[in-house]
Write a structure and sequence with these properties.
179 residues; alpha+beta; eight-stranded mixed β-sheet; 10 strands; globular; Helicase
């Protein structure tokens, strides 16, 4: 397919979800993840433990949009800053960090990712990255969450990516609808 035929948001295929967020304390949210056998990597644990990761006392609903980097017009990949800027120009917003655990708890039928095909410093096959503000500018601290299913097990994982990292055109992101 030629680049001219590629569809750009909003004229592309997306997955929309309505996600209920909030109403639990941080410790209740962590307990709920454990009760549902959601696995965390070290970066995911660091994000949840950080004092800047907060949860809302009040329940609220978010409308999310899942799309690929190429759906934003980046057919050869783009940096996080480029992706977030284009999404904003197209009327999509960043998600609150607490969306990650709540979406993981609601999205239990995520298709299996291919465990063997991941390359280092690239988003794993089948993963979905939550587009959110970073909690800290510290280069060594995780930048956000991504969802993945590996060998039937659901994961809420944190990731690190510096400002030079280029995401692949097929990498999936979730944004919040702003209107």
């Amino acid at each position: 397919m030629s680049i001219e035929n590629q569809k750009i948001y909003p004229k592309c295929q997306t997955i929309t979800r309505s996600v209920e967020v909030g109403g639990l304390t941080k410790s209740q949210l962590i307990m709920k993840l454990q009760e549902n056998s959601i696995l965390l990597n070290e970066y995911g644990e660091l994000l949840l433990a950080n004092e800047k990761f907060t949860t809302s006392d009040t329940k609220y609903s978010l409308e999310t949009v899942e799309l690929t980097v190429s759906n934003l017009g980046f057919f050869f990949g783009a940096t996080t800053a480029q992706i977030f800027k284009r999404a904003s120009e197209l009327g999509l917003g960043l998600c609150p960090p607490e969306l990650g655990p709540y979406l993981r708890l609601e999205y239990l039928d995520q298709p299996e990712g291919n465990f063997g095909s991941s390359m280092q410093h690239q988003a794993p096959s089948g993963s979905i990255t939550i587009a959110s503000e970073v909690l800290t500018e510290d280069e060594d601290f995780p930048k956000g969450f991504y969802l993945r299913r590996i060998n039937g097990e659901l994961w809420l994982r944190g990731y690190r990516a510096d400002h030079l990292h280029v995401w692949n055109p097929g990498d999936h992101f979730i944004f919040c609808q702003t209107n």
